[in-house]
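> call design_seq(struct)
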């Protein structure tokens, strides 16, 4: 049975395993994940089935609908009006299931209650993870807002195919 809970430091290795599969070989440095979990564990949700992490979502509240680098220090502002999805992932065998939708719903519920105005999500066009995210975004009424030119997805790696998607809440 699938359950959703806040991430813990001991989850980092499993989260990195999900990342490497989801992002086709890439995962955040352990230090970045550790800082995110220690600094904002209630905003780092994992989907777990049978003791195994099968998906996750990490989000921050910000005041601008702009793209942050994929690997970044916490940008969270407790009063921020936007919910920014910093990272998400799901194991291949759970693509097409409701795991990402359930993580998304769990993220949005408290955001609505706290009066946030919108969810901001950055995704590209080329990778299998981009296609998975795009299906979720379209199903939930997100709108493409702007192309992010020469976005530093992670240190030293720049892309031009990513878009900022926004959905009011």
């Amino acid at each position: 049975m699938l359950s959703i809970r806040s991430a813990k430091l001991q989850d980092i290795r499993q989260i990195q395993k999900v990342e490497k599969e989801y992002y086709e070989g890439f995962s955040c440095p352990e230090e970045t994940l550790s800082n995110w979990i220690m600094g904002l564990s209630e905003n780092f949700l994992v989907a777990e089935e049978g003791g195994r992490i099968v998906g996750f979502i990490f989000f921050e509240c910000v005041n601008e609908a702009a793209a942050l680098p994929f690997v970044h220090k916490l940008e969270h502002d407790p009063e921020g009006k936007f919910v920014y999805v910093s990272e998400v992932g799901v194991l291949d065998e759970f693509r097409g299931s409701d795991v990402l939708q359930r993580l998304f719903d769990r993220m949005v519920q408290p955001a609505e209650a706290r009066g946030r105005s919108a969810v901001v999500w950055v995704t590209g066009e080329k990778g299998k993870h981009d296609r998975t995210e795009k299906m979720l975004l379209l199903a939930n009424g997100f709108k493409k807002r702007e192309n992010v030119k020469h976005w530093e997805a992670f240190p030293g790696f720049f892309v031009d195919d990513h878009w900022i998607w926004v959905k009011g809440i």
